[in-house]
Amino acid sequence: MSEKRAVLLLSGGLDSATCLAWARQEGFACHTLAVDYGQRHRVELAAAREVARTLGAVEHREVAVDLRALGGSALTADIAVPKYRPDDALGRDIPITYVPARNTVLLALALGYAETLGVADLVAGMNALDYSGYPDCRPEFVRAFEVVARLGTKAGVEGAALRIHTPLIALDKAGIIRLGISLGVDYAITHSCYDPASDGGACGACDACLLRKKGFHAAGVPDPTRYASPQP
Fold this sequence. Notes:
This protein has 232 residues and is of the alpha/beta class. It is globular, with a radius of gyration of 17 Å. It has a single domain (5-219), classed as Rossmann fold (3-Layer(aba) Sandwich). It has helices spanning 14-25, 43-54, 102-117, 139-151, 154-157, 173-182, 207-219, and strands at 5-9, 29-36, 59-64, 121-123, 163-165. The protein has a 5-stranded parallel β-sheet, with helices on both faces.
């Protein structure tokens, strides 16, 4: 494989957009993959398409895996999304917005796509600091999945050095935003909210919105997010 290529999981959010900008700077030709898993914030899929186009993905694909059949999360079932949780609660417990095994499923899909392309590099936006308590965003999980990838794929058995790049893993949200700004990311085209209004406006109160607002404030960067109503 002479061309430096990667498969990148792209949700349309702030983190994955920054990952795409990072990967492009690193010289990767990126095949982006968005997953329609039945999430209530489906507006992020449109954002992913725009981010892929704007930041120069070679190809963008969307695959559907309906995790609503399993339920168990406020993002895939008829369960209220928590609002205005205090800072000390974020990351302390695993919240109801955790989707059971989501990142395991998403990375498996990206891995399968990479195998069909003959690509050994995956890029994902996991973050272990401002991560809202999700166990599948930790470095230990990512490293364990690399082992699974090498043991459970034809490419891995034949000796491919399959790698999962997580450039944001040790950054807080402000650091991610600063990195993205330095790489020319337009965060106005990204979407993070778990419970958007019918017109796609962000609620401003879910964990994702609170972390996003806090990040822009700490980074000293104007927040370009379109909120559904005036925010404090």
